[in-house]
Input
Amino acid sequence: MSESNVLKRASAAGLDQVVAAETALSHVDGEAGRLVIAGYDVETLIATHDFEATAALLWRTAGLDPAPAEEDVRRDLGAARVDAFALVPSLLSSTRGLTVTEGLRAGLSLLPDEGALPAHIRAVGAIPVFVAALVRRERGEAAVAPVAHHGHAADFLRMMRNAPASEAEVTALNAYLSTVTDHGMNASTFTARVIASTRAGTISAVVGALCALKGPLHGGAPGPVLDMLDDIGTRENIMPWLRTEIAKGERLMGFGHRVYKVRDPRAEVFNKAVTLLTNGNERVRFAREVEKAALIALREAKPNQRLDTNMEYYTAVLLEALGIPRSAVTAVFALSRAVGWTAHVMEQERVGRLIRPQSAYIGVWPDDAAA
Ligand code: ACO
Output
């Protein structure tokens, strides 16, 4: 094989630079550090749209007919949370011993393809109910029922704690949820589109997308970010710890991105949100110091790589400040990203063409084996 073919195939292994779909849902500019979601810069989006408003925007943008108004989405998600709560006993009895993310994966599989409410509403409505129940089970506590007329973010925090959240907490969670609804052709969204292209339906696409999301190279990073902050422990230990890990060939969780070559704009959104929420408490200040040192250590060790902070770093710090246990951060990411997945399913179903790429055969040929 020629050297250029080897290189082409090496980069093809990650489909770098390959445009796999056209979408009106979001655009990631990795050089400028800019994220546009359905026509809004992310910073403007979160100032003007809570989670339900963002969901309505994305589903309208995806061409859902009739176009849903914000109030429709609020009402339908409330009803879907109540419906999903009826499945909680089966969820809990069938997922004993599983983690929250594994439990959510099983829980979403309990949803039928067809139902009274549309599948995208049932999937997005079920996730906070299942995640809250799974978190409470971890603590040995009984599940708390949803309240249909509450906002999605507020109801999730209330179900998880069995106590109402403050307005500041609801605002911070809404900022997180609206920000992470969609992000170009990331691995889980691509998975959702591949599944949708086979006409397997929305629920299957969401289950598959969650499976892709849970890996540490995608949505599974925030838990390890918090483990890293805990392991480092003290300011004196920051640089020695980071240098040792990099020298061992370990990746620093919350750094690096396939598309962003500068700081992920969502990292700053979450940094601001957690600073506002906690008044910049000791944990947040420590996280900022670790971030600064990590960027120095990465530049020293990998001067030819453009590695910067990705959103998972401050996701971890923000969700921790909201009292979300680290076992549940990936599932809370799914709570929001399911909006993007389902919107991409709508777009893909309209395209209507099976996604079926080619592979390059590098195995033995029958003729060679006989020789
Ligand atoms: N720490 C240390 N080195 C890193 C890191 C990191 N976080 N990220 C990349 N590198 C290094 C690699 O070791 C490699 O170095 P080498 O050429 O000396 O071997 C080089 O940078 C390029 O790495 P790739 O794996 O080719 O980069 P890719 O684009 O595939 O990786 C990824 C992107 C998976 C996010 C990577 O940066 C990573 O593993 N980060 C840590 C996990 C993480 O934070 N995941 C969350 C991503 S954000 C999200 O999905 C929502």
Remarks:
- The radius of gyration is 21 Å.
